[in-house]
Amino acid sequence: MADNIEFADDAPLFAHSQQFQDIKNAAHEHLLTRIEELGAEFGRWSRQAINQFVDLEMDSFVRLRHIPINESEVRAIAEALTKELAGFGPIEDLLSDPAVEDILINGFSDVYVSRHGILARIPVRFSDNGHLLRIVRRILAPIGRRLDESNPMVDARLPDGGRINVVIEPLSLAGPIVSIRKFRKDPLRPDDLLGNGTFGAEIGALFEAAVQSRCNILVSGGTSSGKTSLLNALAFHIPEVERVVTIEDTAELSLNHPHVVRLESRPGGFDGTGVVSIRDLLRNTLRMRPDRIIVGEVRGGEVLEMLQAMNTGHDGSMATVHASSPRECLYRLEMLAGFAGFQGTENSLRRQIANAIDFIVQIGRLSNGRRRIMSVTEVTGLSDNIIATQELYRYEPVMTPEGEELDRWESLGIHPHSPKLARFRQALAASMNTSTNFGFGGGGRDGGFNV
């Protein structure tokens, strides 16, 4: 199976040998001939019926052609052919493996997967680039996206909630380049992230209070750093009585909330007509009576609408931004606003940003694949035409004498400044006066928070 690959000491398994590929290709041609004879009847068969058909035909094929392979090798080829006819070929097992986060294919013979944040090459391969392209088109078929020389780049949401990006010739020089991002069917909850060490209990309590107190939060980080998962978890603290509207280029968010309206932008047709951007959706969302707006990723002119929404009664909104630090996140907002044609002065833009954003949560992926909150920074206002911030927590791991790295978030001893968190500050001061520790409040939908 493709997701359980083992190696002998001197050679790969038969399923990853050239002999396997040659026999499978010949058997596939034989099966296609038989399928043509069956005609439309084959299209009505269940997967189980196709599996039985392949088993019978493989036994006949091997016996008549005197192919020197044993029973287990016949079964391996038959299984691969069933996946070829009824599924997604060599990557079917990877698509169904819950541990796989990303599948990256750089041409027919170069496949990588990411598990738990670690990227590794695996000995899974396609017969050739034509074979890879057939599988990709089979994946794209249910979502109606076209991939050909006149439209050589596709970015789309899969029916199971994942995302696929494909680039083919003439843009790609090494054959089809396929990037598949998978998402959990059951989104991570705050307790899950706390349990796997993404953040500590004190930060968890602050997140709960900030969301319930309707603070505006930006989640900043790099690619595959866990921004979407963190946004899903933060949304768990939104009270059930509120209406949440999510806006994304490719729908990835899966909020654990009873009243969510999900909107997705549209790239438009081949002639460029029919485009609906995130900016268009944000403008329309303001007419949909949202209590909170969540933007999957801010990357263009929609930054202006988002800032206006946050400044005009839609407190508690959240978004993600690609940036390497909280300060870079603020610079990126300014840059995007400039590209979008912001007409005011630099000072008025910075004032809008400072008034709109309450917290920037920086998340990162470490070299060992683990995702960790790197810092929690509060935006406190404007000082000398510079957006003022204060860092509340910083990730500073410690090494034990045995060489083990332990997670630690250094509190800088500063209480949140925002008036929205006045009640939280009082509870924090009371807990410090009585020398008790924070406790993470896991529930979070009754309008209260725990310290």
Give your account of this protein's structure:
By secondary structure, the protein is α/β, with parallel strands linked by helices. Helix content is 34%, strand content 21%. α1 packs across α3 (71-86), α9 runs parallel beside α10 and α11 (326-339) crosses α12. The radius of gyration is 26 Å and the shape is elongated. Pfam families: T2SSE. Residues 85-365 form the Bacterial type II secretion system protein E domain. Belongs to the GSP E family. This is CpaF family protein.
Largest sheet: 9 strands, mixed
- The name of the CATH architecture of the largest domain is 3-Layer(aba) Sandwich
Mean residue pLDDT: 86
User: What strand line-up does the widest sheet have?
Assistant: 9-8-10-11-7-12-13-14-17
Write down the secondary-structure element order: HHHHEEEHEEEHHEHEEHEHEHHEEEEEEH
The assigned structural class equals: alpha/beta
Please give the alpha-carbon distance between the first and last residues.
48 Å
Structurally, the number of domains stands at 3
CATH superfamily heading of the largest domain: P-loop containing nucleotide triphosphate hydrolases
**Rg from Cα:** 26 Å
User: What share of the residues does DSSP label as strand, in percent?
Assistant: 15-25%
Enter the CATH topology name of the largest domain. Answer: Rossmann fold
Helix content: 25-40%
Low-confidence stretches: 1-12, 435-451
Mass-distribution shape: elongated
